[in-house]
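name: query_chain
kind: protein
chains: 1
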Amino acid sequence: MTKQKLGDFLINRGVLSREELADALKAQRLTKKKLGLVLVERGYLAEDQLTLLLGEYFGMRVLSPEEAQLSPGLVSLVPRPVAIKNKIIPVSLRGNELYVAGAEPVNGSVLENLARVTGRQVRAVLMGTTELDGLMRQAYNHGEAPADNLEPVAAEEPDQAVKILEKLIQRAILERASDLHLEPESEGMRVRLRVDGVLRTLERLSAGVVPLIISRLKVLGNMNIAERRSPQDGGFLFPHEDGHSTNIRISTLPCSRGEKAVLRLFSAYDKDLAITELGMEEDTRSSFQELLKLPHGLILVTGPTGSGKTFTLYSALKYLRSDRVNIITIEDPIELQMEGITQVQADESKRKLSFSNALRAVLRQDPNVIMVGEIRDGETARLALQAALTGHIVLSTLHTNDAVSAVDRLVDMGCEPYLVSSALRGVLAQRLVRVICPKCRREYRPTASELTVLGLEEESREDDKELFYAPGGCALCQGSGYRGRTGLFELLVINNELQKLISEGGDSTAIRGNIRGRMRTLREDGIVKLRRGKASVTDVNKATMDL
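structure:
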């Protein structure tokens, strides 16, 4: 008898409608994620509810983290590479029976191999994904001895420095760090990680290992190891045990105590790039996608450094990519290699490879879509606007505080208002805020001062049931109360009315007055995420206080 499909099982259990299943399957085809994960991400099922249903569907026992009996002896029964590759963890040993937990049924051959190696009967149980991740981090990451506890490294022991650097990078990847900082000090080197936008010290290394680690980085990044008085940039791919890789960009900077190195880490593949994963509200995402479908026009993404503009542009390029579209990008640097797209490395230090000169050359390459990494000067701005008027979709970024200010910025760079009004189609402003950990967040009623800061005081008087969420602290988020980041967005769509206003010389004040009440601002988008338990008052206020 053919086993019932999971989707049909959930419908028959009455926890999912056919419309919701169809929507989830469509998203699954786009993201290539497991159906259960998609259902949780889209809010159709809670994770603990899904885990119980999967246990019923597969006929497996569901184990809670409280029932796990982790110990060094138990964890050592499953080698770390095997655990990470198969996403399993030993949770209990009862007599001769070893129980291993996974977020889905474990491959039979893996269980057989473990049984042969351990000499025990191996039983598989189910556990929620976030709970499993927390235990795995606790078992295979937190218990490791820090690199600075290694024996002192002598100059004739370069291999030890190689191992320390590899361990540091692995630790950064496991903790989802975006940056790894190696900072020289008087007695060695301080190692810091930036996780969810916040820096924290990981450990300190002894002085003997510092020059060897910097030299090793330069070798990996194809940089000049003899040059210690000038900044250098490089990069390399760091392979994982599961066959994937992390793209690492290196920047070194001479300082008073030696050389500081910062490693920027991001996935070497574009599988995670999706407009649906940026954190946009449904109406904003739909409008943004409609802009991308236009036959021509300039679309800008604005925000300060580190607000996720490049990630949004790459997600837009992936959305537009197809065999029928010729996409060319001009970037400095190229942060992510994408298949099916021609990417050009600009170099402002060489006149022949500046953004403006590269853009002129690209226009002779029969492009449909052009992405300019950043509009830095008036010449590039005018070329981008002219390209948008001649049948091309042009994507780029600007450094402005909000979407409306982009119009003033283009005019200040020397672009005529009539040219801006004719070519500009939309401006997406964004910020990044930390996501409150869903496992340990707590509800609370906001104070009057918090409501006042957010501009909700009058509204709250009408509805005294306003609830916000605050971070807690658990194993999953390593006590920080946060896990991951999401975006705050405001989208300015240039319609006929705004085109006329801009061509007549209307500035940002006039535009704000025209669109008041018709565009969700960054602050208002942050309030939406506050009410959904995604962000904290502190982060939303910090990200939008200059608006």
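note: Residues 142-156 have pLDDT under 50 and may be disordered.
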